[in-house]
Amino acid sequence: MSTIKIEELKKLASQPLAEAREILDAHSGDIPADRKEAYDKLMDAHVKAKSNLDTYVENAKATADMESYESLNFGDDGNVTVSSHSKKAPENKYASAEYKEAFASYLLGGSADSLKAINGSTVSNDPNAGYLSEADFSSEYIKQVDDATVFRGMARIFRVNNYKGIGFPELKIEASAEWGGEVTKQPETSVGFGRRSLKPHDVKAKLKASETLLRNTTNFQGDIIIPQLAKAHAELTENAFMNGDGVNKPLGVFAASDEGISTNRDIESSTSGEIDMDVLREMVTGIKSPYLVNAKYLMHRLVYREIANLKNSEGNYYVNMMGARDDIFGNLNGYGITLSEYAPSSVTAGTYAAIFGDFSNYWIQEALAPSIRVLDQLYAETNQIGYISNSQVDGAPMLEEAFIRLKIKA
User: Fold this and answer.
1) pTM value?
2) Which residues fall within 8 angstroms of residue 236, CB to CB, at 6 or more apart?
3) Where are the domains of the chain?
4) Is 76 exposed, middle or buried (0-12, 13-18, 19+ CB in 10 A)?
């Protein structure tokens, strides 16, 4: 993670906010019509820059996780082992001229044989599938997905060695302990385990592109195709990590569910249709101290905008631009605020507005490396080439006590 890059992004975010607050203060919070447009533009610039900063910081974490990650290994005897990997990533040939030439040929409908020779690529044995599974493409694809999302950098990602339905144990009853002397009867510990099943589901991203454009471009075709497929993948999965119902897709943090975060972890605002700053503070005290170390707020940029320039009774802004840690910019009650386009976007009665917690207790499970299929004949009549990327993903909150959600009073 580049400290210089972070400082540049912080400056881009802080300057328009400072100017917007100057307008606000100059008019005691009652902005006249002739200054409203300027104020709105400054706030839009601030929110956009802060979103870019959040994405950069979380991406850097996700990229680091690619070199230091955990995998789940499922043995034939049914036993599960967790392996931690911390190693330098192998050389990626994706940027080499030889690789680009072979991959470009494949993207234009050619054979994958050249890629196989370069890097031991494999093509699906299913004659009806024809997906190319190739290590360097997969690494680049995952990196592009990370670049387009904030949630993956906050969550805990597991990679599994097969495509089975997997149940993670969920602690239902907490164990207890007490001090005892020689005669004291020792307490009995009763621990019940449920099973929250995670099974990676297919994520297919699709794209059609002009064959004329692809054949005549001076750019590497992979730089055109992969970012678009990865962006579609990232948008679909990030939305599910927020709002998914858990049916053939991840279970989201804003979905009220006994299998994830139940309504027991909701806190309601005191005023109908409005954000209550006191309740935002109470969210912090609603989380046990071990989770506060890595806790942060997650909300939509439009919700953030509503609170960014609110002041307390002493005339101080609730949202402070400096945090206790270098990776925090724009903090509330001493904790970072991360923005996502897929968090609830409006402050509406009866809906969720924000969530606070330690997002490492949201687990993402990935099985099988991303693969790509070229449909060079399907759209021939329209002079287009089609592409489908395929990967398998699931996710769910694993420990609801690590989270607390703000719900707007009806």
Assistant:
1) 0.77
2) 203, 205
3) 73-172+191-252+368-400
4) exposed
